[in-house]
Amino acid sequence: MKWKVLESEELIKLGLFKIRRDRCELPDGRIMPKYYVVEFPHWEHVIALTEGDKMVLVDQYRHAAERRFLELPGGTYEPGKNETVAQAALRELEEETGYSGELELIGTHYPNPALQTNEVYVYISRDCKKCGPQNLDPFEDIDVKLLPINEVYNLAQSGEIGHGLMLASLLLAKNHIFNL
Fold first, then answer.
1. How many C-beta neighbours within 10 Å does residue 19 have?
2. What is the pLDDT of residues 155-172, one digit of tens each?
3. Of 4, 42, 56, 107, which one has the fewest beta carbons inside 10 Å?
4. CA neighbours within 13 Å on the CB side: how many for 133?
5. Where exactly are the structural domains of the chain?
């Protein structure tokens, strides 16, 4: 049963996200005086597969962890850009990698439902083709990697892919890739 929000106060707005404090009534009547929520727009990931059974990945520096991560192309849906989540996924794929293809939504998952409001939309794109150069944002630090699909799943299994959101999206895509 859903908690009843008695009061909600926006504490801070920074770029694409906001932090708010809610006062909630639980189903049994108890009152949660302060529950902090981070409002993010939805994110998207693209499982981009080439004709040669390779997966298009990005190798990207993540400052909070102070290291590079092997990731799926994707990013943030920006409602102000007047685009759908699928259009944002295709835009991010093309900008980050220079690849493009038809998209199929295979599912969603929540990055952190205890604190965040957003979902990750996971798309698969089969027979992706190189359509142009990368078109990175000014401060993106991304290298494109093409790896055999089996190798990507071996890296995930061994812990070499250490980004939890990527692991969740790869798990969601596994049946679609291997037709299990």
1. 15
2. 999 999 999 999 999 999
3. 4
4. 3
5. 4-39, 43-178
Among residues 171, 166, 48, 53, which one has the least CA distance to residue 103? Answer: 48
Backbone angles phi, psi at 95, to 5 degrees: -65, -45
Segments in 48-163 forming alpha helices (H): 85-97, 149-158
Q: Where are the beta strands (DSSP E) in the chain?
A: 4-14, 17-25, 31-39, 43-50, 54-62, 67-71, 74-76, 99-100, 104-109, 120-130, 142-148
Closest CA to 93 of 107, 75, 73, 78: 73
Tally of residues, the chain: 180
Query: Structure tokens of 2?
Result: 């859903």
3-state secondary structure of 153: helix
| Residue at token pair 């299990």 | 180
State the CATH class of domain 43-178: alpha beta
